[in-house]
């Protein structure tokens, strides 16, 4: 009899799963010159799911890295650190990439470099968040809060594919994916996205994304509240119990991310997907926990 | 010495202000055939700030209206109730209009009718929400969660004007209005809205909207958190202390509305603005409190 896999419902269960599976990913950290990054890296290494390779200043190599026995590669500038950390992924010496104390633009430029970057040609780069909201009974996956301004059909399809893969990695056998819109009507004239939603739903029903249930356009309440769904008298396989939300554009995705972190005490983890290895790309002001959970998420999905 | 006016910071203060000012608005209620609408109307009438005119079935007129001594006008169908209630506003026999147990489309059709409706020619119709979030220290005004899919420059300007007027009615002398976007950069190519934001900011500085501070594009965190603003090293007159948020489009506005009501235990009030009288247009599934607060909001801003 096959072992029943247990669905991961919060971040402590995620870390427990990584331990149970003996996951330990080589993680290149670009320019870990601030206390927050160092604290998150230290905790992830203590939990055992990453083995850090710090691409850092000489001072940090001798001090922080030396104290903890972490591997280090010296860089003189943030730019050089970004290039060297990306190089480690490209040469398959690292399984995960993390941004430290440097501007996002600097790291993205190294990632997207056509000659020595790590985004394969014709591959869609997108941003996926996993959030635990105190008012929701399980994790909520969503995309895209940070990268794609207005997804094309191809980008949208890859967003769904990535999100479904993430849910499977969290041992959700048949994730419920809701295509978010302000109402449940397909209205090609005012809202061109809703037409592509109808196509995606069909593709999903035909098995294009593996085991999952896809529906939309649906609004957030109908997607995440069985009561709201029943009040609206909508019949949807999502059942007011969505695992994942696909947002129409970056305005909506970014706003949701910021609303739940600012006003709902949400815990979040996030990575870039599409690159040769998952990239942890925290914002200034993200908590240490958020960085730690993002490292855990990246470690789980890294191949 | 003029009396110092006290800023309204939550809905109980709003209701207290209405009492203090002896506000009592004649409120036409279209088809109040459900318990939720009736309960909200009864409570608002008991608080004293509305005098209801129920456009209802014969049964409701004899039962509910009779029991409470409310004025009533008989209608045979929801459509007739919508037309008659709109007619009361048009004939200046009602100061506020409220939707009862009928489809939004039915009431909107009567409101927007070119011959006998109540939207003056060339007037912008928009939806304004006031929310009290447990995690924010004051009321938050925002637009547009429900009506305008993608605001034109003219519509955007009126949104700002209405919101500033609302804030003034809540005795906020110099409201801070944030033009919301996913980042603080003006980027006309990817995000055409951000260019119109820059224009609005200039108009605001030149006094086009009366006493207020307008800035944007700004993201939600920078707008509502002094800490986030300082981490990002942004210098904005909003100071992480926004009173009002202007959202780029209906996708963003609607999502924010639903996120805060579903996941942040927000209390909300909302009205349509632009019509000859404010319109309370609750959604199915809105709480009795939300309907009551919306009536209070409409009563305050009705002229």
UniProtKB/TrEMBL annotation, chains A, B:
One Pfam family linked to the record: PTA_PTB
The reply on keyword Hydrolase is no
Pinpoint the Phosphate acetyl/butaryl transferase domain residues: 79-298
| Entry EC no(s) | 2.3.1.19
Alphabetic keyword roster: Acyltransferase, Transferase
Q: Which PANTHER family match?
A: PHOSPHATE ACETYLTRANSFERASE
Q: Which family does it belong to?
A: Belongs to the phosphate acetyltransferase and butyryltransferase family.
* Protein's UniProt name: Phosphate acetyl/butyryl transferase
């Amino acid at each position: 009899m096959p072992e029943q896999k247990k669905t991961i419902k919060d971040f402590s269960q995620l870390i427990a799963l990584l331990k149970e599976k003996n996951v330990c990913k080589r993680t290149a950290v670009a320019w870990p010159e601030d206390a927050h990054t160092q604290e998150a890296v230290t905790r992830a290494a203590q939990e055992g799911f990453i083995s850090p390779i710090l691409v850092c200043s000489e001072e940090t190599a001798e001090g922080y890295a030396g104290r903890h026995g972490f591997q280090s590669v010296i860089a003189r500038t943030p730019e050089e650190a970004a290039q060297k950390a990306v190089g480690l992924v490209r040469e398959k010496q690292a399984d995960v990439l993390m941004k430290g104390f440097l501007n996002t633009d600097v790291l993205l430029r190294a990632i997207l470099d056509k000659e020595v970057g790590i985004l394969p040609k014709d591959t869609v780069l997108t941003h996926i968040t996993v959030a635990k909201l105190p008012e929701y009974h399980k994790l909520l996956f969503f995309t895209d809060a940070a990268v794609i301004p207005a997804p094309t059909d191809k980008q949208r399809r890859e967003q769904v594919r990535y999100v479904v893969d993430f849910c499977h990695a969290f041992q959700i056998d048949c994730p419920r994916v809701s295509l978010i819109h302000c109402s449940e009507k397909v209205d090609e004239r005012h809202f061109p996205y809703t037409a592509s939603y109808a196509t995606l739903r069909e593709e999903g029903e035909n098995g294009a994304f593996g085991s999952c249930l896809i529906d939309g356009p649906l609004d957030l309440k109908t997607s995440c509240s069985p009561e709201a769904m029943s009040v609206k008298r909508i019949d949807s396989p999502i059942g007011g119990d969505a695992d994942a939300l696909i947002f129409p554009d970056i305005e909506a995705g970014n706003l949701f991310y910021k609303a739940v972190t600012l006003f709902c005490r949400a815990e979040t983890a996030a990575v870039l997907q599409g690159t040769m290895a998952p990239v942890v790309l925290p914002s200034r002001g993200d908590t240490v926990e958020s960085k730690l959970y993002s490292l855990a998420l990246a470690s789980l999905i890294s191949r």
